Amino acid sequence: MSLVAIPHRIKKMKTVAQRLEMEFKEQDAQGFRTLLVDFTFFKKHKGVANSILKKIEFPDETFYVFDFYYSKLTLYDTITTVFFIHSKKLYLPDFYLRPETFFHKIAEYFGVKDIDFDDFPDFSANYFLNSTNEELLREKFCEKVVQSFRIEKDWFMEGVGYNFILYKKDNCLPPKLVEKLFKKGERLYKHFLQNSQKLSKNDDG
Q: Residue 86: inside a domain, yes or no?
């Protein structure tokens, strides 16, 4: 499957790649989509990754930002800009964070677990969070991670093992916000790592 992306969008994303010192690929020529199959967002939406920005920090640590084109009303009529990282330094439980809605309240009534943080009631009120391993998730979601979502209410984030994605659904971000997305994702990754290192030291002690 191939897709010709909007030319002016490709040009803008190339410029962002240069500013962030990232590689740029216009299309998903090497099956990049296969790296994303375990995430809920990509299970729900069949589409194509384009304007792929890539940065390899270490052999086992790779950052990506890309536009994901998928169909809602007509063919590829919707774009979401996504931050994605694959790192063997991470080990995250499967989790899914998204803005809380009335429908999530109904889901809770029928037994779907929403993981809340008593110390951050505003975060818990704004976001619906569930995981296959609540205990490990609470260890990973340190204060700095939670604080990253307390002001803005429209983020989505998913984690699966060595990977996580961050995005605003159905939102093709302008260039300046693409850079902010990358930096926010990079900060979250560092918070996850720092917290993992603290937990490891505590276990050793």
A: yes
